[in-house]
Inverse folding.
Protein backbone atom coordinates (compact mmCIF):
# COMPACT_ATOMS: atom_id res chain seq x y z
CA UNK A 1 0.00 0.00 0.00
CA UNK A 2 2.81 2.42 0.84
CA UNK A 3 4.35 1.78 -2.58
CA UNK A 4 1.04 2.83 -4.19
CA UNK A 5 0.94 6.03 -2.13
CA UNK A 6 4.55 6.81 -3.04
CA UNK A 7 3.79 6.42 -6.75
CA UNK A 8 0.68 8.59 -6.43
CA UNK A 9 2.67 11.30 -4.64
CA UNK A 10 5.32 11.27 -7.36
CA UNK A 11 2.65 11.68 -10.04
CA UNK A 12 0.93 14.49 -8.14
CA UNK A 13 4.17 16.51 -8.06
CA UNK A 14 4.27 16.34 -11.87
CA UNK A 15 0.73 17.68 -12.36
CA UNK A 16 -0.47 21.16 -13.23
CA UNK A 17 -3.47 23.01 -11.75
CA UNK A 18 -6.32 21.47 -13.78
CA UNK A 19 -4.96 17.96 -13.28
CA UNK A 20 -4.70 18.54 -9.54
CA UNK A 21 -8.32 19.74 -9.49
CA UNK A 22 -9.39 16.45 -11.10
CA UNK A 23 -7.51 14.53 -8.41
CA UNK A 24 -9.14 16.60 -5.67
CA UNK A 25 -12.60 15.87 -7.08
CA UNK A 26 -11.81 12.15 -7.34
CA UNK A 27 -10.63 12.06 -3.71
CA UNK A 28 -13.78 13.88 -2.54
CA UNK A 29 -16.01 11.42 -4.42
CA UNK A 30 -14.15 8.45 -2.93
CA UNK A 31 -14.48 9.89 0.59
CA UNK A 32 -18.23 10.38 0.07
CA UNK A 33 -18.54 6.78 -1.13
CA UNK A 34 -16.60 5.44 1.86
CA UNK A 35 -18.71 7.50 4.28
CA UNK A 36 -21.96 6.16 2.77
CA UNK A 37 -20.67 2.60 2.99
CA UNK A 38 -19.52 3.09 6.60
CA UNK A 39 -22.84 4.56 7.77
CA UNK A 40 -24.65 1.39 6.60
CA UNK A 41 -22.69 -0.70 9.13
CA UNK A 42 -24.27 0.84 12.22
CA UNK A 43 -27.66 0.64 13.90
CA UNK A 44 -28.99 2.00 17.17
CA UNK A 45 -27.66 -0.01 20.09
CA UNK A 46 -24.35 -1.06 18.50
CA UNK A 47 -21.35 -0.86 20.82
CA UNK A 48 -18.54 1.05 19.11
CA UNK A 49 -15.09 2.48 19.71
CA UNK A 50 -13.34 5.54 18.31
CA UNK A 51 -10.24 7.58 19.00
CA UNK A 52 -10.91 10.95 20.61
CA UNK A 53 -9.35 13.92 18.84
CA UNK A 54 -9.40 15.79 22.17
CA UNK A 55 -7.46 13.27 24.25
CA UNK A 56 -6.08 10.82 21.68
CA UNK A 57 -7.47 7.95 23.76
CA UNK A 58 -9.90 5.21 22.81
CA UNK A 59 -13.55 5.87 23.69
CA UNK A 60 -16.18 3.14 24.00
CA UNK A 61 -19.75 4.18 23.26
CA UNK A 62 -23.21 3.01 22.20
CA UNK A 63 -24.91 4.19 19.02
CA UNK A 64 -27.89 6.42 19.83
CA UNK A 65 -28.83 7.60 16.32
CA UNK A 66 -27.56 7.12 12.76
CA UNK A 67 -27.79 10.20 10.53
CA UNK A 68 -26.76 10.62 6.86
CA UNK A 69 -23.14 11.53 7.60
CA UNK A 70 -22.65 11.27 11.34
CA UNK A 71 -23.47 8.85 14.14
CA UNK A 72 -24.59 10.13 17.53
CA UNK A 73 -23.03 8.01 20.28
CA UNK A 74 -23.27 7.99 24.06
CA UNK A 75 -20.03 7.20 25.91
CA UNK A 76 -19.99 4.33 28.39
CA UNK A 77 -18.23 6.41 31.03
CA UNK A 78 -19.95 9.70 31.77
CA UNK A 79 -22.70 9.29 29.17
CA UNK A 80 -21.47 12.18 27.02
CA UNK A 81 -23.03 12.48 23.57
CA UNK A 82 -20.63 12.70 20.62
CA UNK A 83 -21.30 13.35 16.92
CA UNK A 84 -18.79 11.12 15.13
CA UNK A 85 -18.19 10.42 11.42
CA UNK A 86 -19.02 6.76 10.70
CA UNK A 87 -15.60 6.25 9.14
CA UNK A 88 -14.02 6.85 12.56
CA UNK A 89 -16.09 4.17 14.32
CA UNK A 90 -15.29 0.50 14.81
CA UNK A 91 -17.76 -2.00 16.24
CA UNK A 92 -16.50 -3.53 19.47
CA UNK A 93 -17.47 -6.98 18.18
CA UNK A 94 -15.06 -6.47 15.24
CA UNK A 95 -12.26 -5.49 17.62
CA UNK A 96 -12.76 -8.58 19.80
CA UNK A 97 -12.96 -10.87 16.76
CA UNK A 98 -9.61 -9.68 15.39
CA UNK A 99 -7.83 -9.92 18.76
Amino acid sequence: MTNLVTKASELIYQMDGPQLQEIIEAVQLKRQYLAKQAIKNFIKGDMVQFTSRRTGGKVNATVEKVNKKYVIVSTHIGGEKWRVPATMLTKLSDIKASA
In short: The two ends are 23 Å apart (CA to CA). Strands lie at 47-51, 58-66, 70-75, 81-85, 90-91. The chain has a mean pLDDT of 91.
